[in-house]
Each structure stands twice: as structure tokens, then as C-alpha cells.
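Page 42, continued from yesterday. The earlier attempt failed because a stray header line got pasted into the input along with the sequence. Redoing it now with the clean sequence only.
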Amino acid sequence: MARRPRGQLRQDILDTVIELLIDTGDVDSVSIDAVVDRVGCTPPALYYYFPTKTELLRQACEVEFQKLAEHIEEGVAAVGGGTIARLERRGYALLHWAGEHPALYRILFMGGRRPAVVTGEGMGDDPSLRAMGENIETAIREGLIKPQDVDLLTLTLWGITHGYASLAVSFPVIPMAALEAAQGTAVRAMATEIFTADGLAAWRAAQASEGGETGPEGRATRS
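This time it went through. C-alpha cells are written below.
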């Protein structure tokens, strides 16, 4: 058997763990034996990189959190407009990702055993959440969002976003367009409370730039 390039075994193990988590949907069903059998290595080789199963699962999930964050940032970077347009795009990017990767979303965000796998405390273990908080801080500095508790507002918007993302996963019969519209309605209900006058203008401009017919109160209707 050909030797793997240096570091490749570790990556193969992490990739295999995610594959098994998606296949089984259950942390307890992913055994060390199942991992090494699929990868084609020995248990000692696995333990060289990951001393415990918990550490193995934690690192595999961290990789996927980072991939999700990068996916969201790519979507944000493609958006024309300023800070408010980028903030709004974060919510839709997560919603779409959840609809396209339901099994992985369940593992990262909905699993009942997730605390045993992802051991970060508070709001710090999800880089996409940290990026949302930084986006909000920038909007406050620019005078687009009213000065307020950044962590609280981040958690509020994060909760709205994940609420609709979890609906996309748990109820796949709901059309994505309906979930987008509902998420937009929830944000619109908060808009006058969180945005300054300049922020409202920027938000409405972002809505109009999305294309399509303009819905109530300036929200662009998605097809």
C-alpha cells in the first residue's frame, strides 16, 4: 500500500468521522473501529493524532464549523453594498446551507449530545457567530445600528437565523422561498428597533438591490 503524504492520515480520519456522522446521524454510532476500518489504518495510528474519541469528534466538528464560516464569508463577499447588506446575507447564507446539508446541520447544531462533542463555552465555538458579532460591531461604529449590547443583539439575530434554518432541516416540505420570506418578515419587524435612520436607509437599499418585485415596506420579493 502506498504511503500517505505527511499529515494526510489525520485529514482522512477527520473526513471519515464526518462521513460516518452524516451516515448514522448519531455520535454514539461512530466507533473507533468503524473509523479505522473505513480509513484503512490501525487504532494506534488514530490515537497518535486523537487521544480520545471525544477529542476526535470535537476536532472533526471544529473543522466543519470552520468550513461553514468560510462558506458564509464567501456569500457575504459576493454581496454588493455595505455593512447592513452583508449582515443580512449572513442569515440567508446559513438558511440555504442548512437546507442543502440537513444531516450536517443536525450534527453541529441540533444534536442532543452536541455538548459532549463541542466543548467551547458560551458563544465562542462557532466562528460564523463571532463573524456576525463583528459585523454588528462595525455597523454600530458606522452609525447604522443603534448603540446597544452587541452580544445580546448577536444572540437575538443568531436565534432568528437558526430558527428558520432548523425549520428548513426539520420540515423540508416547506419551500425555501417561504422560509426566506418569513425570515425577512422577522427581521423587518425588528428593523425600526435596531437600525438608525441611516441604517434603515441602507437596509432598504440592500433589499431593493436584490432584484425582483418590491414587496411591502420595500422588501424585495424573492422568486
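Notes: The longest helix spans residues 53-77.
Reminder to self: strip header lines before submitting.
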